[in-house]
Amino acid sequence: MSASTGSGKGGFFSKQSIFILLAGTMLGYVVLPVLLVETGSLAGSVQMKMKSGTNGGYTNDDPRHLGGDDIMSRLIENKKLLSTQSLPTDRSPQVMETAILSDHRRKKILVTGGAGFVGSHLVDKLMMEGHEVTVVDNFFTGQKKNVAHWMHHPNFSLVVHDVTEPLMAEVNQIYHLACPASPPHYQFNPVKTIKTSTMGTLNMLGLAKRVKARILLTSTSEIYGDPQVHPQAEGYWGNVNPIGPRSCYDEGKRVAETMMYSYKDQSNVEVRVARIFNTFGPRMHPNDGRVVSNFIIQALQEKPLTVYGEGDQTRSFQYVSDLVDGLHALMNGGYERPINLGNPDEFTIKEFAVFIKKLTKSKSDIRFLAATKDDPSKRKPDISLAKEKLKWEPRVTVEEGLSKTIDYFQGILDEAGEIIPTGPGASKPQN
Ligand code: NAD
Ligand code: UDP
Ligand code: UDP
Question: Relative to the alpha carbon of 297, which ligand is closest?
Fold first, then answer.
């Protein structure tokens, strides 16, 4: 038996193989392309029919059966809707609508530290007013989820940047909040805290000077240190240990205030300085170690509430929406000197622990731990100046604010399972 090599008897190709070759060529080059074109136009005609109303049983919402023009108009519609509101997220479930401002009324506003607790609430207000808001944050204590509900919005930008580095931007107003604020956070890396308050504020002032923007610094009641005057009015110069565990924050903010007025006097920069007293509310970091977050988290988990020292030291607590209103009034008003923003409702820390237990209906014990060094013994704002100059005063009672904050932390706990609050030692936040 001879092996077949493809050559037929008596020639190179047999008639049979030539026929198969021709048939294959016809099939590949003529019949298949014609069939494809025909089926395509068939599909096209089905689409045209669907467009003109006969949708073959599918709902008009099924995007698989929309034509190109429909998809485009649907996209444009959705984009328009999204540019007028926030998108609900776990952290910010309520939809916030944004106003539409004419070009000359819409400001470009920079919020440093805008992904933090206070900053993110301020961003909400500015976005709802219809301004273009740029958040600059290095995420040391801030979290992307605090502003995630604005990420899609054309008026919103997020820049991951450390304010200790120079920043170029073209803006009309700067709210300068960037700085860790709770004792465990600012004591975690004291040198960095000083750099943030000094180099960071210098850079933001240089920016404000160059673009002629008005700049507001979020200073703090800590600049009064362990006060010998009670309540504290703006004229009091304070009692601060320059080399204690709190100094990196207290002295950093004092220098920042000095720089604000030096730039005003020397370079005519328009400055505003808010001295903020203890503020609380949703979006506080669960590991910030502050008394409000610690006590609520401990109480909700039926764990002991940790009071540092005897608990006779006092604090006065303000709800975050009041602070945001105060910052906004200060920025947009004519008053240029430092001004206290706080709620004068004063508690001893011991009383506060009992109050939190009552509001959370908790059976937790109250445990007394060692006092922390340089802990101010009392603190309460005198807000006469804010009332007079800004027509501002807190509107939310501590109880109302706490019940919203308790609901918020309950949600965080449901999600996390368990939270171990940050103790008196410095600690890096867990995102
Ligand atoms: P926070 O820690 O939640 O927010 C601070 C934000 O600044 C965070 O998002 C953090 O990531 C960011 N940040 C820190 N260092 C930065 C850097 N070098 N560059 C860029 N971003 C940086 O604190 P908060 O409670 O929202 O405080 C905001 C401001 O208000 C701070 O300036 C704080 O000193 C001031 N303040 C707050 C209180 C209060 O009770 N919450 C009281 C007094 C003053
Ligand atoms: N700066 C900035 N952005 C600007 C302008 C200035 O970050 O748009 C920084 C600048 O790098 C400098 C600081 O702000 O470190 C202070 O600027 P200023 O012009 O007051 O001082 P100088 O640059 O003359 O030292
Ligand atoms: N504090 C406390 N237990 C805690 C956290 C804080 O007793 O778990 C005390 C703290 O010693 C201080 C007060 O509560 O006297 C307020 O502390 P916080 O850190 O909230 O703010 P600040 O000291 O900056 O005012």
Answer: 3
